[in-house]
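lol forgot to send this yesterday, sorry. struct tokens for the thing we talked abt
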């Protein structure tokens, strides 16, 4: 006599939930699988929302289609996957003793109770809103759901809004900024902290801010929203913490998300210290028959071992796949953790990151670190190469790579992916310095940007180079510190572009014949640079060989200088 089919209920139909359900179905043709989704749409490509809003593509159905172009609606799930998908249906109660889920069909108000053997919670997250007056005004939006995307796309298409503010200078904030700017809306990003994109080193974030302003949008940092201002129930402006008032007809709040844990909490499941559902490596909650994944859970950092929250769609899919396998074959799959890797497009810049930046590393207790910032092209100039600026972070004692950020108009995605896998594999600088990466002029330099980063960082770790950041050099200049600054480029380059910080033009080819122009005190600090600081590094080696002992190189050179220039 055959056993009863396994009863699986999945709460949440965005990313992790459908992935878990689909994987379970592929492993068990006979299981009873029901998917509960509060929204009308299923399996939405939420990372595509800003591009739909911005008009990069116009067909809304592309956000809910399979690669073959088939819309993932309840009929698709039923016919193609034999999964019952209940849309516009909210799960309201989990009875762990009876092993049932109560849900309500929102349009009709009808309730039903579903039994389960194994349950999946993939309830996602809710956008945060500043706790300030005026949040109820018409004209204040978020971009979390497809309904949010529809509303913003309608505003874009109507063409009536002239001024908008984005509250929050993170990934989503700048993706929305670009989308609205492309629609001809004057856009200002407001960030409460002193720097945008907190996963970036401040120098790189400053360079991104320069690009955003160059494109015609504005950024205000170190200033939060104190109130939303309205007229007749409609948004008319925002008041900042310093009292400044900015007129606007649209505000998009992108200050982060809060895990949707109410259902899990009410069921008595354990919640982690960061406010997400606590799960183990198999994505099981404190109830072994209940799994959870996606934006509502906490997971483990592979770098620090600490619990973190990582509300990213790719991770939700990976976790859902692990759950789908464990639903049918318990304890057969695990999700070990994350390196915190992400990427976004902001106007002509790609902004990618993986692992920890220097500040994050120190905050996590990893203090014995070394960093390097470099600039260069992604491919040769004769192939149309574009600029990349990056920072790599490693432990001094072990050489283990713990972070990498890469920005610019060049292909940053390939470089971030390479380092993400190096971090995942526990590789160090030594392994990367001799990495066998693919090379051909249409795709890379002979020494790829990642390999050069490793080379320069290795030089610093071995004491072959002393580096100086742009911020450190600017601080010296602003304070009137006694240092001798040398621009090692050619006179032609100097005439086309220069910093104007009191530098002396001594081309690297003329340096050895002009040593008498350098400070007689060979312990005085000398700082050298060029376009990317390769010539600066070569000049520094020559000066050290001639007895100067306090020689530093401006990391990244002029390309990585984020501050105003003379020319």
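and heres what i got for the seq, position by position
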């Amino acid at each position: 006599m055959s056993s009863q089919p396994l009863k699986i209920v999945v709460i949440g139909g965005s990313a992790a939930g459908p992935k878990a359900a689909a994987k379970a179905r592929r492993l068990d043709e006979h299981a009873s699988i029901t998917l509960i989704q509060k929204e009308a749409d299923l399996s939405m490509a939420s990372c595509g929302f800003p591009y739909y809003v911005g008009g990069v593509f116009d067909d809304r159905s592309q956000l809910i289609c399979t690669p073959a172009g088939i819309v993932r609606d309840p009929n698709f799930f039923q016919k193609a996957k034999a999964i019952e998908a209940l849309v516009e249906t909210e799960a309201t109660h989990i009875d762990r003793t009876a092993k049932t889920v109560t849900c309500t069909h929102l349009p009709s108000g009808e309730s039903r109770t579903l039994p389960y053997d194994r349950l999946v919670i993939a309830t996602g997250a809710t956008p945060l809103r500043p706790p300030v007056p005026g949040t109820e005004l018409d004209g204040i939006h978020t971009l979390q759901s497809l309904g949010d995307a529809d509303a913003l796309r309608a505003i874009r298409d109507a063409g009536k809004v002239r001024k908008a503010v984005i509250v929050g200078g993170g990934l989503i904030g700048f993706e929305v900024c670009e989308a609205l700017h492309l629609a001809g809306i004057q856009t200002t990003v407001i960030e409460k902290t002193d720097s945008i994109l907190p996963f970036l080193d401040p120098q790189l974030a400053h360079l991104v801010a320069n690009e955003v302003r160059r494109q015609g949008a504005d950024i205000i940092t170190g200033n939060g929203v104190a109130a939303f201002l309205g007229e007749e129930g409609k948004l008319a402006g925002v008041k900042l913490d310093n009292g400044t008032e900015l007129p606007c007809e649209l505000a998009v709040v992108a200050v982060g998300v809060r895990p949707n844990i109410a259902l899990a909490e009410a069921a008595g499941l354990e919640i982690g210290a960061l406010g997400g559902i606590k799960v183990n490596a198999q994505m099981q909650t404190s109830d072994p028959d209940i799994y959870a994944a996606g934006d509502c859970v906490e997971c483990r950092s592979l770098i620090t071992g600490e619990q973190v929250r990582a509300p990213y769609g790719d991770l939700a899919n990976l976790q859902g796949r692990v759950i789908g396998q464990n639903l049918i074959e318990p304890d057969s799959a695990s999700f070990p953790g994350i390196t915190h890797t992400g990427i976004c497009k902001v106007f002509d810049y790609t902004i990618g990151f993986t692992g920890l930046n220097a500040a994050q590393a120190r905050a996590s207790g990893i203090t014995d670190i070394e960093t390097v910032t470099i600039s260069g092209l992604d491919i040769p100039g004769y192939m149309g190469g574009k600029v990349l600026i990056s920072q790599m972070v490693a432990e001094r004692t072990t050489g283990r790579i713990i972070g990498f950020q890469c920005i610019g108009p060049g292909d940053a995605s390939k470089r971030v992916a390479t380092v993400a896998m190096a971090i995942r594999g526990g590789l160090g600088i030594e392994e990367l310095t001799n990495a066998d990466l693919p090379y051909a002029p249409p795709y890379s330099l002979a020494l790829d940007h990642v390999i050069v980063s490793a080379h320069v960082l290795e030089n610093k770790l071995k004491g072959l180079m002393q580096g100086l950041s742009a911020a450190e050099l600017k601080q010296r200049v602003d304070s009137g510190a006694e240092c001798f600054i040398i621009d090692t480029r050619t006179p032609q380059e100097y005439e086309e572009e220069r910093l104007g910080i009191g530098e002396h033009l001594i081309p690297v080819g003329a340096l050895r014949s002009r040593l008498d122009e350098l400070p007689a005190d060979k312990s005085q600090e000398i700082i050298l640079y060029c376009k990317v600081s390769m010539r600066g590094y070569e000049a520094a080696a020559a000066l050290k060989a001639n007895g100067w002992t306090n020689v530093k190189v401006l990391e990244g050179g002029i390309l990585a200088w984020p501050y105003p220039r003379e020319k």
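The two ends are 85 Å apart (CA to CA). anyway ping me if u want another try
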